[in-house]
Amino acid sequence: MDKDFDLLSRKGPSGIEIADFIRAQIRSSRYVPGQRLVEVDIIRQTGGSRFKVREALQRLAAEGLVEIEEFRGASVRGASMEEVRQLYRARAALEGICAGDFAMHASAEDKQKLVDLANAMEECVEGGAPEKFGQLNAEWHTLIMHGTRNFVIEDLVKRLSTPVHHLLFENFYRSERLREAAHDHRKIVAAVLAGDGPAAEAAMRGHVENGHQFLRNLDRAVHHGGIDI
């Protein structure tokens, strides 16, 4: 069984757990757009039954992460830059709402956790630790959604934030982007600590939109020969 899937119970994983596993592989670029998802391989990796694997693939197809074609089976779905733009617009709106609510309603403990995570990410920038930055960044964004107890938005954002555009997301955590993100985080944290909901919402929207702009610029560079993948 895959070491990243130790949480599965001895009686075998559910379809939801297997879907979570596959989604995590896509998010980490272990499964890439166009790659076939072979049921036998997933069964071996997760210990799940064929029925549960098929259930998981159907769930992911409904989310738009997987394509299922007759006679060809399932594969990881890619996305155009127009689709990526739409994903980011939705994320900006949803995460902006959460940031505004967090600023006004989160506990002092959660706000301090937000500060601590932001500081830890800045240390990653200075120390050249992009993978750790990515992990902390995910925790930071999740904390904001948890802090507002808006689990509907959290579930939606989880689906929207999966890196379906492999060639671009593989290069997303470059040093210049990390510094920009850390600067954005400082603005959001300042608004949160001030209890200024509208400012926190605006800063979060800007942060997500800046991420999309970075991807657009990177996409142009890729297609004009200005960057090596």
TrEMBL record:
<dbReference type="Pfam" id="PF07729">
    <property type="entry name" value="FCD"/>
</dbReference>
<dbReference type="InterPro" id="IPR008920">
    <property type="entry name" value="TF_FadR/GntR_C"/>
</dbReference>
<keyword id="KW-0238">DNA-binding</keyword>
<dbReference type="InterPro" id="IPR036388">
    <property type="entry name" value="WH-like_DNA-bd_sf"/>
</dbReference>
<dbReference type="InterPro" id="IPR011711">
    <property type="entry name" value="GntR_C"/>
</dbReference>
<dbReference type="Pfam" id="PF00392">
    <property type="entry name" value="GntR"/>
</dbReference>
<dbReference type="InterPro" id="IPR036390">
    <property type="entry name" value="WH_DNA-bd_sf"/>
</dbReference>
<dbReference type="GO" id="GO:0003700">
    <property type="term" value="F:DNA-binding transcription factor activity"/>
</dbReference>
<protein>
    <submittedName>
        <fullName>FCD domain-containing protein</fullName>
    </submittedName>
</protein>
<feature type="domain" description="HTH gntR-type">
    <location>
        <begin position="12"/>
        <end position="79"/>
    </location>
</feature>
<keyword id="KW-0804">Transcription</keyword>
<dbReference type="GO" id="GO:0003677">
    <property type="term" value="F:DNA binding"/>
</dbReference>
<keyword id="KW-0805">Transcription regulation</keyword>
<dbReference type="InterPro" id="IPR000524">
    <property type="entry name" value="Tscrpt_reg_HTH_GntR"/>
</dbReference>
